[in-house]
Specification:
mainly alpha; three-stranded antiparallel β-sheet; 3 strands; 68% helix; globular
């Protein structure tokens, strides 16, 4: 029998998987529903950190009235500032757009990863494995696919997160709900406006999935070997924390660029007024605010990703276990 490709770290490379010879619709539906429930459960807990992270990333942007007037200091200072000036519920601004996004994107991301993992696996004499490079590629591809479907809702979510601050600064509101936000964005330049920031968003989401999904898979495999243990709650817990760290470290710079591009003003034809593209945004960001600006909002981003993936994967594995399915 053919042997799978090996990574230099012998014994810590190929991930053992549950091979699916014929990918059935029932498996797809099960993974999509489980992913949606797990993602919503995670965001109910950590979503305020996403709003906080966005406020910190926009802060200091040259030529942005909100960014120049509001100077938050750190994670808790920003959260307390939002509560004091705008009310506690504003920490959940854009949550409705996030729920709509999760209803199909979370399932697409996990299901596409699961499908690719199955199809790229290699059968040996006693088990089925997938090499580390293929595991990482599956994470990148699944993130890119889900982002193409979700970019308009990501744009709506980010703009809704900023609406209350715009009102406080005397700026006209752009929208009050998902449909109105979509109409407003579409009116600025048609379909092209709904996909503003797609490039950095694909980059961010691909790295996000690489860290959050692939490294969870790889983490479980390697942690079981290090602890000489079967898969259990401790292994899943540690793997989820590994996923949260790598997700944050890999995708944070792209997330800052995505936030800046999506939040920038546009002209009547929907053409951006501040940044030409992702590279232009990155260059201006570093030039005007310093190299470390690419990690603005990193602490809330990390604190968000760590607990988010912990809750998500523990919920995901728990729901599958309750329904009689094996571990992911």
């Amino acid at each position: 029998m053919a042997k799978p490709d090996r990574w230099p770290l012998e014994g810590y490379s190929a991930v053992e998987v549950h091979h699916v010879a014929h990918y059935e619709t029932s498996r797809l539906v099960e993974i999509c529903v489980t992913s949606f429930l797990s993602a919503v459960n995670a965001d109910l807990i950590v979503y305020p950190l996403d709003v906080t992270k966005t406020r910190l990333q926009i802060q200091g942007e040259h030529g942005n009235p909100y960014a120049n007037m509001a100077k938050y200091r750190g994670l808790f200072g920003t959260a307390l500032g939002v509560i004091k000036e705008e009310g506690f519920l504003k920490l959940y601004s854009g949550f409705s757009a996030l729920l709509l996004r999760h209803s199909f994107v979370s399932g697409l991301k996990i299901a596409s990863y699961d499908y690719l993992r199955s199809k790229w696996s290699v059968r040996t004499d006693d088990k089925v494995t997938i090499s580390m490079p293929c595991t990482m590629l599956a994470g990148l591809v699944s993130g890119a696919l889900s982002t193409i479907a979700s970019n308009p809702l990501d744009l709506v979510k980010l703009q809704m997160q900023m609406e209350s601050k715009r009102t406080l600064l005397g700026m006209p509101p752009r929208s009050t709900g998902i449909l109105q936000a979509l109409r407003f964005i579409y009116s600025q330049g048609g379909l092209r406006s709904l996909y503003r920031g797609l490039g950095p968003n694909i980059m961010r989401a691909s790295l996000f999935s690489l860290g959050g999904i692939s490294f969870y898979d790889l983490g479980k495999h390697n942690i079981k070997k290090l602890l000489n243990s079967e898969e259990n709650l401790l292994v899943q817990f540690l793997a989820a924390m590994v996923a949260g760290f790598f997700c944050s470290a890999l995708s944070s710079p792209a997330d800052v660029v995505k936030s800046r591009i999506m939040n920038q003003p546009v002209d009547d034809q929907g053409r951006p007024l501040r940044y030409k593209n992702s590279m232009d945004c990155l260059q201006q960001l570093v030039k005007e605010e310093g190299p470390m600006a690419i990690y603005k909002g990193f602490m809330p981003y990390w604190i968000r990703c760590g607990p988010w993936f912990l809750v998500f994967w523990m919920s995901f594995e728990g729901i599958r276990r309750f329904n009689g399915y094996g571990t992911f």
